[in-house]
Amino acid sequence: MYYTITLNPAVDMLTKAENFSLGKLNRTAEAVYVVGGKGINISMLLNNIEKDTVALGFVAGFTGYYIKEELKKLGVKTDFVETSGQTRINIKLTTETETEINGQSSAVTEKNLAQFYEKLDNLTAEDTVFLSGNIILGMTTEDFVNIAKIVKEKKATLVVDSNKDLVLETLKYNPFVVKPNEFELGEMFGVEIKTQEDLLFYARKLQQLGAKNVLVSRGGNGAILLTEENEVLSVGVAKGEIVSTVAAGDSMLAMFVAKYDETKDYKQALKYASAAGGATSFSAGVGSKQLIEKLVTQLEITEIK
Length: 305
Description:
The mean pLDDT is 95. 42% of the residues are buried. With 305 residues, this protein is of the alpha/beta class. Helix 1 crosses helix 8, helix 4 packs parallel to helix 5 (164-170) and helix 8 packs antiparallel against helix 9 (266-281). The chain has helices spanning 38-48, 61-74, 110-118, 141-153, 164-170, 182-189, 196-208, 248-263, 266-281, 289-295, and strands spanning 2-6, 10-16, 32-36, 53-60, 77-78, 81-83, 88-94, 98-101, 128-132, 157-161, 177-178, 213-217, 223-226, 232-235, 301-303. It starts with a strand and ends with a strand. 37% of the residues lie in helices and 23% in strands. It has two domains: 1-20 and 27-175, Ribokinase (UDP-N-acetylmuramoyl-L-alanine:D-glutamate ligase), CATH 3.40.1190; 179-305, UDP-N-acetylmuramoyl-L-alanine:D-glutamate ligase (3-Layer(aba) Sandwich).
């Protein structure tokens, strides 16, 4: 089973306003509401490619109810801890420019954390856990790292995609793969990645610190994968009209893990991962299985010596 953990999910409100002015009454167009969170995005992609998945994390209030109901409509199983207060709403406002206003969810308690840890009790070596995104108010870095520790102790496969500090703190538990983009990779080591040589040097540092595989997304330049078998593989991007890049990286990570589990072939996994990222970029929401299969035919893997 694939489990995804979204500790701080959100409902994203996407809307537009004409002639927006600060300090005055502004009216918006009809809003679109989208469930958000890295782990949730991963569960939606896995569901689209017909893989069993359960979304874990914390939800609260009417926004938390909305998240559960929207995922239920899509056929995504959930097992959230319900807390008091409200799950946050993030506003994505398009005017002459794009403005994002991210909300704050209500804090979780020690009791809530204990309830969450109980949901990890039945993990086995047959399971994979995606530990994604940032912590919620009421949690500490130690709590996040403790989740990674529990996954390791249960002998389940750990996949981590979070901010630089949380990723670095969990490397000692040997995640199967971490997926920074070029900027995030440089941020982890306080440097700017300027060349492919820089990228490979610092990606190898992540392996030295404990990551088995390192998948570095490069936007329009595709992605580079350093495998635990000492291969360095590169893939480009599929062609298409970009609708939104939101969740593209999450889709890439989800497909990489699922396809590797299916084939035990890193080249196939990387090719499909890039196709999944493209499919989501070219769609309103996460990409479909049909579009992924169509895009993968455009892609080739290059081995970097």
